[in-house]
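Sanity check. The docking grid for nicotinamide-adenine-dinucleotide depends on where the pocket ends up, so I'm generating a full predicted complex first rather than guessing from homology. Inputs follow.
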Amino acid sequence: MGRLEDKVAVITGAGRGIGREIALLMAREGASVVVNDLGGNADGTGTGKIADDVVAEIRALGGEAVSNTDSVADVAGGERLVQTALDAFGGMDILVNNAGILRDRTIFNMEESDWDAVQAVHLKGHYACSRPFARYIRDSNRTGCRILNFSSVSGLIGNFGQANYGAAKAGIAGFSRVLALELAKYGCTVNTISPGALTRMTIPLREKRGEQVADEDLNEGGPQHVAPICAWLATDAAAGITGQIFHTGRGGIAIMQQPAIIRQFHKSSGVWTLAELDRYVPQLVSAKLEHDRMVQSAAIPQEIG
Ligand SMILES: NC(=O)c1ccc[n+]([C@@H]2O[C@H](COP(=O)([O-])OP(=O)(O)OC[C@H]3O[C@@H](n4cnc5c(N)ncnc54)[C@H](O)[C@@H]3O)[C@@H](O)[C@H]2O)c1
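Predicted complex below; grid placement will be based on this.
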């Protein structure tokens, strides 16, 4: 018996890469799967029928799946996607907001269209698919539901040349924290994934640096390493875990810190003078650097074989 038997999962951008691996693993664990993918190019242009190929793979494994080619960047598309699950399988338990594109440019060269396209697929895409699912959960009293959102080191830490993508991915982390609060009373958990995997999104970045990607690299760092934590977070075992950010890839699983006050001063006798700030701001910055050192040493991977 699989760990996701009787669950219905909708996975966006599941025609290839990380989404495809999640779809295959969830199907192997017994979930009925809606494979969504627009099938376009890495920059978001074009369309294609790749979702059907993943549906065929799942059916060949003996699983249940249907395809959907709506764009997640479209509110009506998000509604049709949720409706696809309801029509095909009579319910919905899991939403994985994985679809994504890249339009990397430094701020000097970033056109409005590059900014808008990336916000539309990533940040608006999360909203467009989550809202109909949240309404369905509220209106049907469905319990034990799961939302997994896809952020990135680019937005959580920072990456050169990705102001549009980093802004969207940081926004997704904020979106997830709010959704976790709003859906708690329905027993729905909302967690964020920060993945690292060799896919068509990242392989070209390596090739640009002159590094070739061999089969061995794909074995060690392919998208199959991201799928297990996503499937596990969708199981009943993860019922109490919400509002967290998990970093995963290349055999690693990690939990990330989130914004929190590290040290603070309070002045009750009036507004701060600039001279007082000369004295206290450096103490705040020192506390932050000390905190960073502590976190760095705690984050050294523990090998489990
Ligand atoms: N690969 C990594 O190392 C990495 C790192 C950080 C974050 N991520 C995030 O993980 C997710 C998956 O990335 P991946 O590496 O598998 O990329 P990928 O390009 O292999 O797959 C993304 C899929 O999303 C689909 N898609 C794009 N726009 C869509 C739309 N409007 N509607 C429906 N589908 C659409 C694409 O057709 C594609 O099949 C993305 O959100 C990405 O930003 C990936």
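Relevant for the grid: Strands lie at 8-11, 32-36, 65-68, 94-97, 146-150, 189-195, 245-249, 252-255.
Also worth noting: The chain is about 45% helix and 10% strand.
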